[in-house]
Amino acid sequence: MKEINVGLLGFGTIGAGVIRVFQNNAEVMERRLGARLKLKSVADLDITTDRGVTVEEGVLTTDAMQVLTDPDIDVVIELIGGYEPARTFVLKAIEHGKHVVTANKALLAKHGEEILSAAAAKGVDVMFEASVGGGIPVLSAIKENLCANNFRCVFGILNGTCNYILTRMTNEGADFSSVLKDAQAKGYAEADPTFDVEGVDTAHKLAILVSMCFGTRIDFDDITIEGISNITPLDIQFAKEFGYKIKLLAIGKRENGTVEARVHPTMIPVNYPLADVEGVFNAVRLVGDFVGPVMLYGQGAGMDATASAVMGDVMAIARDQLAGHQARTPAMGYIPDCIADLPIKPMRDIVSQYYLRFTVLDKPGVVAKISGILGNYGIGIASMIQPDRKKSEAVPLVIMTHEATEALISDALADIDKLDTVREPSHFIRIENDME
Fold first, then answer.
1. Is the pTM for the entire model greater than 0.85?
2. Where does NADPH bind (predicted)?
3. Catalytic pick from 40, 98, 143, 205?
């Protein structure tokens, strides 16, 4: 029986999960492929720490180049993470004619075009299902099952840490900092959670989704990114009163030759399916012109779910090799020459409804002044929660607006913050009522 040799870079949590798949599911993979997948080499700087899996003698090495240059290895799995040395290693694997499977969303968001161009020139595949949504097969759905559709929009809850924190804040009324500490203690958040809670991890994934859905190149630095660290229990309480939940949402839209690409806390109606995605789970909602709305939901991270996606890519490459195909499906779902350069719409031009929260002195005329400024900018008020009389203490005033551009909202809030009755900088959250 034909053997396909695989090399693995990175023997961390996900690497250990990949090895478990090789060991536990070798028979089912062989039956599905009609060939044997063999893990020939595993490279990591630390090959002595117990990862809970046993590796055959001679498989482990501290020399990544041994994996990258071995002429017998057909597929290299990159699970190092980050930009370097992952970029250098992936390009070296391609240079030596090896197919690549990676879960590295940061690498693809920043250096994807360079890597995919090198792979195309060499005639090898680069696959990365695990980079977005962990075990959720969203990228293969876009490239394969739904590839006859023009996608209008894509929405995603793509970071389990943020979703876990917001779920706890919503269900328990807890504050951000206390839930974050608990998430770190339970292993749901990193010691340095910045990439997660400030939205960077989600933006890496959105960059890939936008490129694949809309067939466009995207500069990661053009994505607007806001995290959840400023969300308070008060915001969550008011969201509930208006019939919304707050989620860190990745939003991609295409309209009139431009693309929206943004990550930020967003209020979505409680009766929307995405609002029910809780804890560490992820979900992606796609809207195609023929298929309509489709939502994919599942474990967005973790050893086993991510390893499942990685090995799915390895098997897809193996099938192509066995059938004598090379790069049967374009990596980004579009023929490279047909990928466009659609401009990203500036945030000031985005149109949305808004939740506005002010901290004001409870005096007569305050509401009228704020309403007047909003009216001067053409911003309509959909609903309002006014403070009770509390003897001039500072109290929250909450307004839900009709649709307006971000430019008008920003300019109006700048004027409102100058009022002597406004005690803290105003706070706003965008609202997403249309996911079709």
1. yes
2. 105
3. 205
